[in-house]
Amino acid sequence: MPKSKPSRRALLIVNPKARRGTGSIAAAVNVMSRGGMTVIEERASGNETLSDLIRRRAPDFDLVVLGGGDGTLNIAAAGLVDAGLPLGVLPLGTANDFARTVGIPPDPVKAASLIVTGALSPIDLGEVNGHLFFNVASIGFSAELAADLTQQAKKRWGKLGYAIVAARLLARSQLFSAYLDHDGTTEKIRTMQVSVGNGRHYGGGMTVEESATADDGMLDFYSLEVDHWWRLLALLPSLRKGTHGRWDDVRAFRTTEVTIRTSKPRPVNTDGELITTTPAHFRIRPQALQVFTPKS
Predict the structure, then answer these.
(1) Active site residue: 144, 209, 225, 273, which one?
(2) Residues ≥6 apart with Cβ < 8 Å to 237
(3) How far apart are alpha carbons 77 and 80 in whole angstroms?
(4) What angle do CA 100, 106, 111 make, to 5 degrees?
(5) I need a surface site. Which of 46, 57, 115, 194 has the fewest CB within 10 A?
(6) β-bridge partners, 281
(7) What's the pLDDT tens digit per position in 215-257?
(8) Beta bridge mates, 193
């Protein structure tokens, strides 16, 4: 009699603060269980971070399943890399930009099915001042947006919350000076925002660069060097498509490493979380994680 295939043990961590995190995920867990997995949900205790929890429990599991949005992935990134376990994603956040980048369905039940049947793909991560990120890190306008967009607003308004707060910020936005060190050159710029992307999507509908992927081994940089807020409105369709690099007042290039310096420390927004400040040293971490994605 042939031996039955041993069950894969999945460590499930759900962020209850994610926009859909308070709803039942029983159907998604059922899909994984019927797919031959033993799913065990755990929560961080005391002052333990998600990364701490993953590191502590990793020896007892074969994969990690995270239920949450891009912020959840961000704060778990270091633990995921240290553990070296495959990652499954149940999109429960507001924007779920990483899931969109790699083709994970927005429906948690369909995403659970993908974890059972999908392929493992190597995924790059970005790094800024030692902090890892999945999608994009920004300085300027979007960092101010992240500071002003509360958890309550995201839960109540979803993606519309980004637009409401962004419109208010545009009215008082100003350019700032920065120095870029990359590929053996130093450039001084005046900008409204600089962004360094690893994946393709960010900010609930924006695109870093139309051809960017999360596994191309490159960072995509752009700087919005616009004079007036209405110019940014004109750029908006291109920012959504990822074609803004063709505009004269947008500086764009690809690299594996860049440092951004400002006269006074400015916050850096990584996947919607304000994690560090300038000076900011960015680099690519190629093939840092294995993620369940659709079969090609």
Answers:
(1) 273
(2) none
(3) 5
(4) 100
(5) 46
(6) 259
(7) 999 999 999 887 766 666 666 666 667 666 665 678 999 999 9
(8) 140, 224
User: What are 178-189's pLDDT values in tens digits?
Assistant: 999 999 999 999
Relative to beta strand 219-224, strand 250-255 is: antiparallel
Look up tokens 């994680």; give the residue.
289
Angle at 244 between CA 277 and CA 123, to 5 degrees: 60
Q: Is the dihedral of CA 140, 145, 150, 151 positive or negative?
A: negative
Are the CB atoms for 192 and 263 separated by under 8 Å?
no
- The tokens describing 27, both together, are 């159907």
Which residue in the block uniquely carries the two structure tokens 């240290």?
82
Q: What is the pLDDT of residues 105-132, one digit of tens each?
A: 999 999 999 999 989 999 999 999 999 9
**Rounded-to-integer distance, Cα 104 and Cα 90, Å:** 8
In three-state secondary structure terms, 251 is strand
Question: For the whole model, what pTM was predicted?
Answer: 0.85
Name the residue with higher pLDDT: 168 or 197: 197
d(C-alpha 53, C-alpha 51), whole Å: 5
